[in-house]
Each structure stands twice: as C-alpha cells, then as structure tokens.
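User: Fold this, then the next.

Assistant: Folding the first:
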Amino acid sequence: MKRKISKPQYTFLENEFNFLQQRGIMEPEDARDILALYEPRGSANFVRVLLVFGAILIGIGILSFIAGNWAGLTPFFKFGLIVIAFILFYLAGYKLEENYEKTARSMYYIGAAIYGAGIFLIGQSFHLQHTVYTDFLLWAIGILPLAYYLRDQLVAVFASAFLIIYSFSAFSADGITPYWLLLLIPALFWMNEKRLGRKGSIFIMGVLLATAFVVNLLESFGVDEWISILLVFAGGVLLALFPFKQYKPESYWIGSILFGITGIMLTFPFSWRELAIENTAPYVFTALFVILLIYFLKKDSLPAILITCALIYRYYADITYDFMPKSLFFIIGGLLLIGFGFWFEKSRRETVKRHEE
C-alpha cells in the first residue's frame, strides 16, 4: 500500500530527487522506485468530494420522500422505514469497504444522515417531550462510534458541532447540569490522539466544546457575564502564548481567535454592565488589550494583525458613524479595509519568506 502524503510534500520529494539525480547521487530508476511508494492525497480529493455530495443529495432525496409522505404513514411504519434505511446503508458501506473505500464512506454518510434526521422525525411522530437540542445530543452520540470505526475526521467534526449546539441548552433544561459532558470532552481528545491521527480540526472542535461547557456552566451558576468573557479571554491568551506541541498552529490560531473575539467584546460597556465602573472598565481594558496586541505584533503574529484591524475598525465605526456623512463613512471604511488587507498580505508573505529561509 502506498503511503499518502500531501501534495506539497510529494512535490518536495520530486524536486529533491531531481536535485540528487542532477548531482549524480541518485539513479533515475531508484528515484522512480522510491517515489512510487508515495501517493499525493490531492489526487483523490475530487473523487471524495464527488461522493460526499452524491451522498448528501441521496440523503436529502430519501428524507424529502419520507417527509412528503409523513402524514399518511403510521408512527410504527415511519419508525421501521427509518431504521431499515439506516441499517441498509450501513450494511452497503460495510460490504463495499474492502474494495471501494470512498464509495463505502458515502454509504456510511447517508446512513448517518438518515439516523440523525430520523431522530427528529420520530420525536415529532411520537410526540416525545424533549427539546430539539436533545436530538443533536443523540445524533452526536450515535455517530461518534462511526467516526471511531472509520477513523473519519468529517464525522467527528459534525459530532463535535452537535455537542456544542446541545451544550447551549443543556444547562437550562430543568436546572440539571450535564456534568457527563465532562466525559465526552476528554473522550473526543482521546479519540483524536489514539484513533484519528491527531487532526487539527478535531483539536479545535474539542477546544470550542470545552469553552462552551465552561461558559454555560458559569452562566448556570449565575456568574456575571464579564467574568465568563474574561476567563475565555485569559484562556485564549494562554493557549496562544503556550500552544500544545502537537497542535502548535491550531493552538495559536484558536487561542488568538478566542482572545480576539472576547477582547473586542470587553471593549464595549455592555460587557461590564454588572460593575459600578461600567463606563471606565472598557477603556482600562482596551489599554491593556492594545499592549498585549503590540507584544504579539512584535512576534509577527498574523492573528494579531487581524485582531488589531478589527479593533481599529470597531472604534472607527463607534466614533464616526453618528456625525460623519454616510457616504464618507463607507468610503473611509472601505479604504481602511483595503489597507488592512494589504497589511495582512504583506505580513503573511514576509512570514512565509522567513520560514522558507
């Protein structure tokens, strides 16, 4: 079996082998034999995208047919139809897995889509008394084993997203705090480490899920909003300053995004409305925020450039919108955005050039 590598890595190997051949260090036959052991992942991307879209269209068609005839079916017939369709597509995926791996995955995707939609439709059919967010929880729990079995990044990302959606309602339902989510969060990280090959996207979704859990938990305890936002801000800063070794770029970017969004939120007075110093706190925080951004800018941080641009634009809009003619406001705003884009592109190219050197 050929080892799959990224297209840039494959191109790098080709260039290196050509260089070694020109120097007379490697024979052309040896270069071809070694290169034949590798396969660029990009060559199969089109096929996978085609099959995923095909699976989505088939899933939508089946669900559209079921929903269109839903009123004329008995509840148990509806239940049986969904279960049979779900099982059949999973069986088709299992049978095709050995010889047609990508087609098999599309069958699994259809089965997962039918499973999720079936949860919503069955809940309506049997008039089950639960919130719609519980359906997202059941969907996530149902497809996590599939992600583990297939080692599938896409399914794991969707499961994580459904858990995040559920977390925003779980804490307000009947006053019960879903502490069991504390088991799913480390389970997601563990699955990524041991089964999915340390995917950056799964790490990011795990961080977002943990953040959503903490924010909602604090809200359920009646903690002031500014404290929750400030804690997320601090966590983002720590993640950007001390990124995980295995996920350094992902840690840096997600940490920067978290402290950037919450930092800009804390520059508004509404974030501090529980405090007596509501009108003073935003300016004190903004001064400290600017110092932090200057520190990151000195380290050639691309996220810090984006955050700085957003902060400047936030104050520009806040200060000038009420008294400046609207046409002039939009023209200057557009020029600012173009200038920010040029600054970011120039900084990005310089950073890439330094890394290449």
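Now the next one, as you asked:
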Amino acid sequence: MIELSAEAVTAIMLGGVFVLVMTGFPIAFVIGSVAFFTGFAVFGPTTTFHILYSRFYDLSLNYPYLAVPLFTFMGVILQHSGVTKDLYQSLYEAMGRLRGGLAVVTILFGTILAACLGVIAASVTILTLIALAPMVTRGYDKSLAAGSIVAAGTLGILIPPSIMLVVYAPQAGLSVGQMFMGAVFPGLLLSAFYMLYVIIRCRLNPALGPAIPEDQITPFDAAKFFRLLKSLVPPILLIAAVLGTIFAGIAPPTEAAAVGCFASILLAIAYGKFSWGLMKRASLETMKVSAFVVMIAAMCYAYVGIFMNAGAGDVVAEFILSVPGGKWMSFFVIMAIVFLLGMFIEWIGIVFIVVPIFSPILAALGFNPLWAGMMICINMQMAFQTPPMAMSIFVLKGTAPKELGVTIGDIIWGVIPFILIIMVVLVLCAVFPEIILWLPEKMIGAA
C-alpha cells in the first residue's frame, strides 16, 4: 500500500480517466482499471475486493434497472414494426407548404419517436434513413438537415421513456416515475424551440429550406387528415400505455415498461410485422444493450466506491462548496463539469460517476433534488452532440447514404445552434423551475 492524500487520489483517479479515455479503449475498461489499480495501491487487495464485492452486490439488487432491458426491447420491436412508416409522410403532407417544413416535420417526428423508443441510436438511425435524403434532394442546406436530425434524435434520451432517466434516478435516490414526468415539459420545450429556430431561419433565408414547389402541392383534404390521425393512433396508444400507467399511479416505471413491451408486440402483430425472427433480433439487441449497461455500471460502481472511500468525494465537495459567488456559481461549476465530461465520456459513465458525488453536494447547496437531476439530464443532451465523443453525430454519419455527400463538418456546424438552444432551455428551467416540477407534483401517488 502507498500513503496518498485524498487530494492526490482525486487527481490520480480523475486525471487517469481523462488520459486513458484518449487512448480509445472502451470506457468500462478505462474506469475499471483506474478503480482497481488505485484501490490496490491505497487500500491493498483485501479491502479493495471487499469494497468492490459490496458495490457489485448492491448493483445486482437494484430493481429499477430491470426497466433498461424492457424499454430496450420495446424500442427494438417498434423500430421494425412499421408503426412509423406512414407517420412521417402524413406529417409532411400537412406542413409541406411551410418553408423548412421538412426539417420541422423531422423534429416533430423525432419527438414522437422519442416518446416511443427511448434509445438515441434507434431514433437517429430512423430519422436519417427517412428524412435526410428527402431534405438534401429538395435543396435543404446540409447542415440544417443534419442538425435537425441529430437534435430531434437526441430527444430520445430525455423524453420518457428514457433509459438515461431509468439509470439516473436510482443513483440519485429519486423516483423514476417522477423523473419521467419532470422530463416531459423540458423535452417538449426543446422540441418547440428547435422547430421555432428552423422556421425563423428558413423565413430569413428561404434557400436553406425551400417549401414544396407550387406545382407539386396537393390539397390537404379529409382523406389526408384521416390518414394523419390514423398514423398518430399507434404512438399515442403506446405513450398512454407507458406514461399513462405511471402518471395515474397504476404501475411504477419497471412494470410500465413491461406494459410497453406487451403493447409494442401487439402493434407489431397489428401491422403484420410480428415474427419469431423479430423476437430473436429484439432479444439479442436487448441482451447486448443490457450487458453494455451492466458492464459500465459495474465498473463505475467500483470506481465510485474506491473514490468515496479514499476521501476524494470530500475533496470535490469542498472545492465546489468553496467556489466564490454562492450556490448558483457552485451549481454552474457542476454543470460546466458535466458539459466537459460529455465531450469525452459516454453518458452512462457520466451518470454512474458524477451523480453519487454531486447529488449530496447539490442537496447541501439547497437545490431540489428532482430539479437538479433534471437539469443535469438536460445538460447531457449536449453530450451527444459535442465532439469528440458525439454519439448522435457518429450514428448519423454512419447511417447517411454516401451519395448525399454529408460530411462530419456539415453535421457539427448544423448542431451548434441546437446546442445553444439547449443552453437557453437550461436558463429557462433555472428561472422557472415549475417547468420541471409542476407535472411530478400532479402525479397520483407522488411523494
């Protein structure tokens, strides 16, 4: 064992993660190796194994995490069920006359997908395959088209049912159901601001998002209106099945996730897409995602266990609480740290590392835990859109047809305005906390 001060352990563990992430190794191995080697050096093998065993055991008994595979399964089934097949076209027929209408429809469609899938990769992939080619071929600016897809697809990790919220809530000792309700209005506000930005920008510069040519416009008659309503029914039923049961107090999120799985299977049957091949594909994808989550969770649990037992958590708390400028400046420092981490570390690593450390600090500063948690989750919307670790950008680039010529530069320039919009929404939620807190307070059975 080596005698190290708490400050030295803090520097080694935080610095070690930052340095090793740059090597390109998977985040689970990076975090786990830092935890193991630091633990062996500071506590010795016996104490280290005891800390790790207790942490892993606690993780295995964490009941809310059962919602992760259930929501993943639901999302994969829906992705291949054909539920969204007609919805995009119906929305475009309703808004095609609007300048930038295709981008607005893409954001609206992404918002609906977010409330059905809860998985970013699926949302961004579907939006890219459905919306990118029509926008680019109709003369839309590539950056605006790509930015709209990335921003809309990233809503899938905020608007419930969101896997991020399922993972975050147990770490902060919060109710998953209340976090789901707390995310509804911020998610919808982001979506509305995204659409407003596109409309204003395309009105100022029509060349960025031209409307349908006059000779291609057909009347939006009763038949098209009925088709739109018909295409909206499946997503509405699914949202009601999941969020309705939670809001009404009928079932907690984990059981509501099971209801969502059942509803998604019924929709796949109704659309004639159900098959045992689909079930096998969904099951395998669910196991992959769940194993990924549990692997990172286990390593992060180990990391936080060593970090806190070495007294490094007290060092971080003392630093943040001593920042001049009062509690709001301390809160700004926490948000800045989360934003910077999002540029280098995947969201799940951020949640498992910083939430156990920051939650007690935020409580000591006097902030509402639910509000503070949602602010961090909104902040992490930017983590998916800020290079070098920008998952949404890479999913779009990997899915986009090469003949469209959309570059990484186009995508990055396109997402910058949407990142600024997220910052504006964060400020609004800070000034008007009821945006987050009002709906959870109306839940049946809310504490």
